[in-house]
Amino acid sequence: MKSPLISATAAALMMLAGCQENPSETAKDVTAAREDAAEDVNEARQDANEVAADASENVADAQQDLATADSKAAQKLTKAEAEAMVKNANAAFDVAQTAAKGSYDIAKAKCGALSGVTKDACVSSADARLAANQAEATAIRDAALVNAENHE
Hints:
93% of the residues lie in helices and 0% in strands. The chain is mainly alpha-helical and 152 residues long. The protein has one domain. The protein is rod-shaped, with a radius of gyration of 49 Å.
């Protein structure tokens, strides 16, 4: 019984001995593995560079979109500010005109108690004040409208 067991053991040892590489074959295998690894790493780097370039391009596009959006937002803000300036100028003008008319009505009512040349002078003075107040309100409004038109 020992003889078939010894034969099998001997055959197994011989097979193991035949599987071993000599140093030259091992060196060739190591060199091939290094070349494969280097090639794989280079391919991975190329892929990574392509991904990085694509990502950088996406970032640049997003920055451009933001700049465009910021520009559009700034233009929209400027337009809204100018429109608000026009509305405020017109509203202030309406208030000034109403105040001028109110002052005129009061001054003219005071003139009602007078007579003759004194009354005429009082009414002329009230008319002159009304015209001056209206002219001032118009000048202020027009200056504000010019500022609104030139608002950037």
